[in-house]
Design a protein that fits this description.
Radius of gyration: 21 Å
Strand order of the largest sheet: 6-7-8-5-1-4-3-2-9
Largest sheet: 9 strands, mixed
Bound molecules: fe (ii) ion
Order of helices and strands: HEHEEEHEHEEEEEHEEEHEHHHHEEEH
Structural class: alpha+beta
Helix content: 25-40%
Number of strands: 17
Shape: globular
Number of helices: 11
Length: 375
């Protein structure tokens, strides 16, 4: 049946095949100290470095790794550096959500020809370990997506970086495995523009859809749509504020980040109780949820494997959909501006994002906002 065979093949063609998130690059005021925090609190291992000692005069970058998660922390060494402007405006934050591809040139061409704005034309980087191809496009705010092709590269990160050695005496791993999703906050009225961007320029599809009827509290509301690439390895929820009586957490973020940017990064674990215990022991601060949340939990979500008392002790949330359940917890913002925070997530069948927890969670966030005088 040729016409049956032809059609699905055509429909299934992905013009931007992605292998996953390659790395997240943060621009920070003091990368050396930030690296210490991610090693001792979140368990990352220092894997690579570039800076003055390696011949790079204008910046220092630390590459941190835990299983499949890779963070790059970069600090500028000059007041006139463009990275300095980024930090002055946004504070410490995510600049680059880099995507791992097999063909960076093709990724750049396919996306820019569909309307994406180029911020770095395809370029080949070389050192003694081979060559890597990189290119980049702009997304919301001052955030970019690099396309990283490393088929012909055998070094520890990218050309120009030196390996830090296999032993890291500071790293205290907690079992974080991979990036589950990376969430962007955009100003009121811009969510659909970025949904269209991910659909049209990057070939993503809408994964789930929430609106302010799903996600609202007395004071605060948001709208959220989740965009996913074809193989669902890369998921980007996008939030915009919705009308509420008081300032929403998304508005607070936009005010302090001075525009659109990455709100939270969800990192997956296979053992959330052990991971959260270790993170707490190592000084990571999590949002507390009201005790009432646990009172009717079993009635709401049915039986689960984990002891309820331990989930309550640690403040871990649970949500269920028709495919299974998931456990999640959110940190407080990790810098003094109330901007970026982290989620730790364990999926047990569910592919959703914890819609049933949003109300309990937002009430917890609003208590924190009120303490900061921003509600
Ligand atoms: Fe999330």
């Amino acid at each position: 049946m040729p016409q049956v065979l032809e059609h699905p093949a055509q429909a299934g063609k992905d013009f931007l095949p992605l292998n996953g998130t390659d790395y997240l690059e943060f621009y920070v005021g003091n990368a050396r100290q930030a690296a210490h925090y991610y090693r001792t609190a979140f368990g990352f291992r220092l894997a690579a470095y570039q800076g003055p000692e390696t011949g790079v005069r204008d910046r220092a970058s630390y590459v941190l790794v835990e299983n499949k998660i890779r963070f790059v922390l970069t600090t500028p060494l000059d007041p006139d550096h463009p990275i300095t402007d980024h930090i002055r405006r946004h504070g410490d934050g995510v600049h680059d959500i880099a995507l791992w591809v097999d063909d960076a040139e093709s990724a750049w061409r396919e996306t820019t020809s569909r309307g994406a704005r180029s911020v770095r034309p395809p370029e080949t980087l070389r050192d003694e370990h081979g060559e890597a191809r990189v290119a980049a496009i702009a997304t919301y705010g001052d955030t970019i997506h690099s396309f990283v092709e490393r088929r012909n590269y055998r070094g520890v990160f990218l050309p120009g970086f030196v390996a830090a050695g296999t032993e890291d005496g500071l790293a205290r791993p907690v079992g974080l495995k991979y990036i589950d999703h990376t969430v962007g906050n955009v100003p009121l009225g811009e969510m659909n523009r970025w949904v269209d961007f991910y659909r049209d320029a990057m070939g993503f599809k809408m994964f789930k859809h929430f609106d302010d009827k799903d996600i609202s509290t007395e004071y605060s509301a948001l709208m959220s749509k989740v965009m996913s690439n074809g193989n669902e390895r890369v998921k980007f929820p996008l939030n915009e504020p919705a009308a509420g009586k008081r300032k929403s957490q998304i508005e607070e973020y936009l005010e302090f980040y001075h525009g659109a940017g990455v709100q939270h990064i969800a990192m997956a674990t296979d053992h959330i109780i052990e991971t959260v215990r270790a993170l707490r022991r190592q000084g990571v601060d999590f949002l507390r949820v009201p005790g009432a949340y646990y009172e009717d939990l079993t009635a709401r979500i049915g039986p689960i494997d984990e002891p309820l008392a331990e989930l309550q002790e640690l403040g871990i949330l649970v949500d269920r959909d028709d495919e299974g359940y998931m456990l999640q917890i959110f940190t407080r913002p990790v810098e003094d501006r109330p901007t970026l925070f982290y989620e730790v997530i364990q999926r047990k069948g569910s592919r959703s994002f914890g819609k049933g927890n949003f109300k309990a969670l937002f009430e917890a966030i609003e208590r924190e906002q009120a303490r900061r005088g921003n509600l």
